[in-house]
Amino acid sequence: MNQQQIKVKFSSLATASIVLGATSLLCSIFTAIPAIICGHIALSEIKSSNGTLTGRGLALAGIIIGYVALAYFIAIIILVVKARLYQT
User: Does pLDDT of 76 surpass 80?
Assistant: First the structure.
């Protein structure tokens, strides 16, 4: 029996996405947008790799955290602008 073994690699973009997503909670927009971009690219690569790449969960987590951090940053900007407009 000669079975061909497929080496499974972990997506480096998925790892980058989760790391950037985690740091986006502190650095906000500067790493949130790259986390979202890396996550989407990683998901695309994982989907088209026919099972040779893994890390879908990390890519999704990076995307979700990136979007949450981005929404939080935008909400803070809106609140600051509103506070400045209504200052007496």
Answer: yes
Rounded (10°) angle between helices 29-48 and 56-85: 150
pLDDT digits 0-9 by tens, 16-28:
999 999 999 888 7
Give the pLDDT mean for 31-50: 95
CB-CB contact of 53 with 8 (8 Å): yes
Q: What is the mean pLDDT of the chain?
A: 91
Task: Write the DSSP string, the chain.
Answer: --PPPPPPEE-HHHHHHHHHHHHHHHHTHHHHHHHHHHHHHHHHHHHHTTTSEE-HHHHHHHHHHHHHHHHHHHHHHHHHHHHHHT--
Please tell me the distance from the alpha carbon of residue 16 to that of residue 40, in angstroms, as a whole number: 11
31's CB contacts (< 8 A; 6+ apart) are 20, 21, 23, 24, 66, 69
